[in-house]
């Protein structure tokens, strides 16, 4: 029997080239400036930032414009390729994702913006994901998560809509029920129709599955990773804070003590670096890469 082990294509793989058009209405700069401001209010002092689930780099660019020293990672090579087009040499780009994020450095701020944590699809892996992000924190580092609330899954994921942007038409079909239950999985399908040179239309169909993480499960994950809760805040998509806003919640954490793991043996060179390679990491090497990744247990402090 021949077994071909290959990473399954993410919903973002085919969509990557059109992703920026799909989210064109989003106000990234204001939002990211707001998130960094929030982190500074809670003691962020250093400039080393890890942008987890950076996608096409829309969340990364404002961080660079703020003068921060950014490493950005994403498990979809196609999204990273788009990020590289925008960012060039200005940030270190790494092919890696949750729930077992490798230790990529010691960061003053680990940020997972725009529902990235909701791509982790069960409570156990949520704990692994939080622990592996915690393992990337420097002493006094802050973890800032942006997690979607029930409002997202009873709203965006429960409706259908159509939008036109330049030479593309996007048709979103949310499959979740209006009474979507806490902790459930939500599904949506995005059909992107893009006008090709010559006038023909191409259709890309992407299926998205996200999990709503109940508050208690997030708290449990932070507790298990030995992280102290500094704030849980409501926030609008453009960074405006509002306790009544339910679309996004910013959750800010940092380790409670100055103790810090000092095992540098697991620190790894970025697999996606300007100097090291010019394209996506080969999916065939993914199994050996995963074997070297730290376990959640190794992340506890
Ligand atoms: C909604 S996009 C956000 C991208 C970017 N942060 C932004 O704000 O535009 C979600 C990103 O999460 C990435 N992603 C999906 N599963 C992930 C995982 N398990 N770990 C880390 N990132 C993941 C996707 O590849 C995608 O780029």
Could you write a compact summary of the structure shown?
With 301 residues, this protein is an alpha/beta fold. The protein is built from 9 helices and 11 strands. It starts with 10 loop residues before the first helix and ends with a helix.
Q: Could you please describe the fold and organization of this structure?
A:
- By secondary structure, the chain is α/β, with parallel strands linked by helices.
- The chain has two domains: 6-149 and 213-294, 3-Layer(aba) Sandwich (Rossmann fold); 151-211, Single Sheet (N-terminal domain of TfIIb), CATH 2.20.25.110.
- Helices cover 27% and strands 28% of the residues.
- It has a seven-stranded mixed sheet, with helices on both faces. It has a four-stranded antiparallel sheet with strand order 6-7-8-9, with helices on one face.
- Helix 1 (11-22) packs parallel to helix 4.
- It is globular.
- S-adenosylmethionine is lined by residues 10, 12, 52-55, 58-59, 74-76, 79, 97-98, 113-116, 119-120.
What is the β-strand count? 11
Backbone structural class? alpha/beta
Hetero groups in this structure are: S-adenosylmethionine
CATH fold title of the largest domain: Rossmann fold
Low-confidence stretches: 1-7, 257-301
Known CATH architecture of the largest domain? 3-Layer(aba) Sandwich
Taken as a percent bin, the fraction of beta residues is: 25-35%
Radius of gyration: 19 Å
- CATH secondary-structure class of the largest domain: Alpha Beta
The mean pLDDT is 82
Span between termini: 43 Å
Largest sheet: 7 strands, mixed
């Amino acid at each position: 029997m021949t077994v071909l082990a290959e990473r399954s294509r993410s919903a973002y793989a085919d969509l990557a080239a059109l992703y920026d058009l799909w989210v064109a209405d989003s106000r990234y700069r204001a939002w990211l400036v707001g998130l960094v401001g929030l982190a500074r209010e809670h003691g962020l002092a250093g400039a080393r930032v890890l942008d987890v689930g950076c996608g096409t780099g829309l969340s990364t660019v404002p961080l660079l414009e703020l003068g921060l020293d950014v490493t950005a990672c994403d498990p979809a090579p196609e999204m990273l390729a788009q990020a590289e087009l925008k960012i060039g040499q200005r940030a270190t780009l790494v092919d890696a994702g949750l729930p077992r994020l490798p230790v990529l450095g010691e960061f003053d701020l680990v940020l997972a913006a725009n529902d990235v944590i909701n791509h982790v699809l069960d409570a156990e892996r949520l704990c692994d994901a939080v622990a592996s992000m915690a393992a990337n924190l420097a002493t006094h580092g802050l973890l800032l998560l942006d997690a979607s609330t029930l409002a997202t899954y009873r709203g965006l994921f429960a409706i259908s809509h159509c939008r036109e942007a330049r030479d593309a038409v996007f048709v979103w079909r949310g499959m979740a029920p209006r009474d979507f239950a806490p902790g459930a999985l939500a599904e949506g399908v995005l059909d992107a129709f893009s006008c090709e040179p010559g006038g023909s239309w191409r259709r890309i169909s992407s299926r998205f599955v996200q999990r709503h993480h109940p508050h208690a499960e997030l708290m449990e994950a932070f507790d298990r990773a030995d992280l102290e809760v500094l704030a849980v805040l409501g926030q609008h998509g453009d960074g405006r804070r509002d306790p009544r806003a339910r679309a996004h919640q910013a959750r800010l954490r940092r380790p409670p003590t100055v103790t810090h793991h000092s095992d540098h043996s697991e620190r790894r060179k970025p697999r996606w670096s300007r100097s090291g390679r010019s394209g996506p990491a080969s999916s065939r090497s993914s199994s050996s890469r995963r074997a070297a990744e730290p376990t959640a247990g190794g992340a506890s402090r």
